[in-house]
Structures are given as structure tokens and as C-alpha cells.
């Protein structure tokens, strides 16, 4: 599946895979969770919505984020050398770029 076509939940899953984070859907739940450390209960994993999770990845991967560069009304995120993806929010665009940087333009 193209990274540009992933839903937010699918994108969160692929960010976890890219980070090698053990994230899963608890039985009967529809939200991805992970364990942040020893003796810490599972927490939601949503880097496409939580700056506390997605923000550090943006800095680490040196993702450049811009608003409405080409008149699309969307955010764009780029990573050298030639990765450019869009999203409705800055985090969505950035996480698309992050997954693309690690796995390429398609996942699955």
C-alpha cells in the first residue's frame, strides 16, 4: 500500500514498525498501544496526533514541514534527498515522510 494512502491508524502502526516499537491492539480495543518502559502500563501510540511522540521523530529525521507550499491547503513534509509527502496536519505529513524514509513509498 502506498504510504500516501495510509489512514492515520495505519500510519501510526507503520511508524511503530519503523521505530521497532512493540505496539499492538489490545483485545476488544481499536487503539494501538505500547509500553513506554518497565513497570509502566500500556499507553496509546498515536504519533500522527501526539506531538510528544511525533515531534521527536521530526527532529531526529530532520523532517522539513511546510504549510500550503503549492496552494494545496495541506501540510507537506520533506526529507532529503527526494521524499515529499502531504497530510491534513503537520504531524500526519511528517509521519508519512518518516515511514517513507524508512520503508520507501510503499509498505505492506
Please report the first level of CATH classification, the CATH class: Alpha Beta
Straight-line N-to-C gap:
6 Å
Rg measurement, Å: 14 Å
- E-strand count: 6
Structural class: alpha+beta
By CATH, the topology is Bacillus phage protein
State which percent range the strand residues make up: 15-25%
Number of helices: 3
Estimate the helix proportion, in percent: 25-40%
Largest sheet geometry: 3 strands, antiparallel
**Assembly state:** single chain
Taking strands numbered 1, 2, ... along the chain, how are they ordered across the largest sheet?
1-2-3
List the helices and strands and how they pair.
Blueprint (H helix, E strand, L loop, with lengths): L7 H12 L3 E2 L8 E2 L8 E2 L6 H11 L2 E4 L7 E5 L3 E5 L2 H14 L5
Antiparallel strand pairs: 1-2, 2-3, 4-5, 5-6
Helix pairs in contact: 1-3, 2-3
Structure, described:
The N and C termini lie close together (6 Å). The strands form 2 sheets. The protein has a 3-stranded antiparallel sheet with strand order 1-2-3. It has a 3-stranded antiparallel sheet with strand order 4-5-6, with helices on one face. The model has no long low-confidence stretch (mean pLDDT 94). It has a single domain (3-103), classed as Bacillus phage protein (2-Layer Sandwich). By secondary structure, the protein is of the alpha+beta class. The longest helix is centred in the last third of the chain and has 14 residues, at 90-103. Helix content is 34%, strand content 19%.
Amino acid at each position: 500500500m502506498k504510504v500516501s494512502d495510509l489512514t492515520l491508524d495505519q500510519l501510526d502502526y507503520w511508524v511503530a514498525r519503523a521505530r521497532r516499537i512493540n505496539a499492538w491492539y489490545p483485545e476488544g480495543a481499536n487503539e494501538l498501544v505500547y509500553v513506554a518502559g518497565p513497570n509502566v502500563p500500556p499507553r496509546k501510540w498515536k504519533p500522527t496526533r501526539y506531538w510528544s511522540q511525533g515531534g521527536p521523530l521530526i527532529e531526529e529525521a530532520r523532517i522539513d514541514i511546510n504549510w500550503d507550499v503549492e496552494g494545496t491547503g495541506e501540510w507537506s513534509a520533506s526529507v532529503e534527498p527526494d521524499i515529499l509527502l502531504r497530510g491534513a496536519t503537520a504531524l500526519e505529513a511528517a509521519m508519512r515522510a518518516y515511514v517513507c524514509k524508512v520503508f520507501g513509498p510503499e509498505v505492506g
